[in-house]
Amino acid sequence: MYIRPEQIAEQYEMEVKSISKGRDCFLCETDLGMRALKEYRGSVERAEFLAGMLDFLKGQNIVAEQIFYTKEGEIFARDEEEQNYLLLSVFRGAECDTKSREDMVYAVRLLAGLHNATEQYPDEVPEFVKMNPNALLLLYEKHNRELRQVRNYIRGRKQKNEFEEMFMRQFAGFFEKAQAVTEQLQNMEICEELTGFCHGDYNQHNVVFSREGVAVVNFLNFSYQIRVSDLSNFVRTPVWCHELIELLPLLCIPYRIPLSIFPAMLLPGIHPAVRPGCRQGIILCIDCEHTRHLKNAEGIDQCLQRIA
């Protein structure tokens, strides 16, 4: 399908100077500044809520993208194929550098500020942004089933190649960790105080150091769930994971909740099917009576002693 972004852009009150292809969007240089046309598949209600939330965050001094309405006052524009598009503000600048300790710590503090700011949201939480509290458990149960299916398929092959032989030798150890993680999730009690609005896709690409300030962008997966899921998503880089234990106390400081009830942090490598390149899985509770690490418990114990 040939998309004509110029025809979509004409539905907005702006003069378009040029249009180029960006990451999952069309970048429009306009008389009002840079704008992004991004495909949108959600409902009108969700888009209206998101626009209101982003405006609320702006009032809370959070630098975040904004959604613009069409000339007709519609939240999104449509092309000839009835596909919807949102028009969003764009921040020019450098993305968060995962090799920079300063960038990463600042981004986590910004995330905490975002979470804390949303606590002041005055309206009721819509049902369509609430996530199933058991979503992560269901996902990991699905991964376990997939692992078994792959194991059964390879086991049934009469002639196995080198990779398949290695897979069968390593499967038991990885699957044992996967089951331990799943059981941990089954026994976990989620406190209401630990849930709240989440960015939904918080990573280094969505934190931009711009002239307007350090901006957060790409809120299309915005949801209401366990807030630590944002932090978990953010620390999914190998370079960052190596320093995670050392920096954990610093990362937790911006959150205005007691460390004793901070949620279990489901970190990268926790499930072999999710992060097959990571050799160790972590289940960490910031609670001195309940600490487990699948490989290095001593390091976490020392970290927890520093927190206490």
Question: Any low-confidence stretches, pLDDT <50, length ≥5?
Answer: 257-301, 303-308
Structure classification: alpha+beta
SS element count, helices: 9
CA-based gyration radius? 22 Å
Give the N-terminus to C-terminus distance in angstroms. Answer: 59 Å
Shape: globular
H/E series: HEEEHEEEEHHHEEEEHHHEEEH
Helix content: 25-40%
Q: In percent terms, what proportion of residues is strand?
A: 15-25%
Number of beta strands: 14
Mean pLDDT: 79
Biggest sheet architecture:
6 strands, antiparallel
Q: Can you describe this structure?
A:
By secondary structure, the protein is an alpha+beta fold. Helices cover about 40% and strands about 20% of the residues. The strands form four sheets. Strands 1, 2, 3, 4, 5 and 6 form a six-stranded antiparallel β-sheet that branches. It has a three-stranded antiparallel β-sheet with strand order 7-9-10, with no helix packed on it. Strand 5 (about 75-80) and strand 6 (about 85-90) form a beta hairpin. Helix 8 packs parallel to helix 9 (about 295-305). The longest helix has 25 residues, at about 160-185. The model is unreliable at about 255-300 and about 305-308 (pLDDT under 50).
